[in-house]
Amino acid sequence: MKTLTNLLVAASLLFSGGMSTMAQAQTETPATSDAAPAQQQSRAQQLMGDVAPKLAELTDDVLFGDIWERPGLAKRDRSLITVAALIALNRPEQLRSHIALARRNGVKEEEIVETITQLAFYAGWPNAIAAVGVAREVFKTDK
Questions:
Q1: How many whole angstroms separate alpha carbon 101 and alpha carbon 120?
Q2: Are residues 63 and 101 in contact, defined by beta-carbon separation less than 8 angstroms?
Q3: Can you tell me the distance from the alpha carbon of 100 to that of 138, in angstroms, rounded to the nearest whole number?
Q4: For residue 18, with 0-12 CB atoms within 10 Å meaning exposed, 13-18 middle and 19 or more buried, which class applies?
């Protein structure tokens, strides 16, 4: 039951609107507190910790600390699966950061393009066309 709960939480975090930069969630920057020594905050804490601290904690601990670190799939494969799901759900804001993460995890441009092409027939032409525009942006910044 805990595994199912973890998967449901991760899926809801992944596909929620606030996840546009969560693929970069492990980027650390110092907190801004005068009273305490500088403390590192995760990207999740920066983006939502002030409003939804539990959601930020779950993002750090469950999604990136557990799901993305499980040994059953390589990060490369997890990235490709995530990119495919975001294309199918037409989530361009999240897709942008996950294509960049997929590239860092070893997914080639050609593989992303083939994924988009394949999904045009299963997830819809408009979703694929939108994904091409996002991929173009990411590929330009990668070079």
A1: 22
A2: no
A3: 6
A4: middle
Q: How far is the C-alpha of 14 from the C-alpha of 81, rounded, in Å?
A: 12
Q: How many Cα atoms within 13 Å fall on the side-chain side of residue 10?
A: 21
d(CA 96, CA 141): 11
pTM: 0.71
Q: Is 97 exposed, middle or buried (0-12, 13-18, 19+ CB in 10 A)?
A: buried
**Kind plus residue range of the DSSP H or E element containing 40:** strand 40-41
pLDDT per residue, tens digit, the chain (143 aa), is 444 344 333 444 444 444 444 544 443 333 444 555 567 999 899 989 999 999 999 999 999 999 999 999 999 999 999 999 999 999 999 999 899 999 999 999 999 999 999 999 999 999 999 999 999 999 999 87
Q: 24 burial class (0-12, 13-18, 19+ CB within 10 angstroms)? A: middle
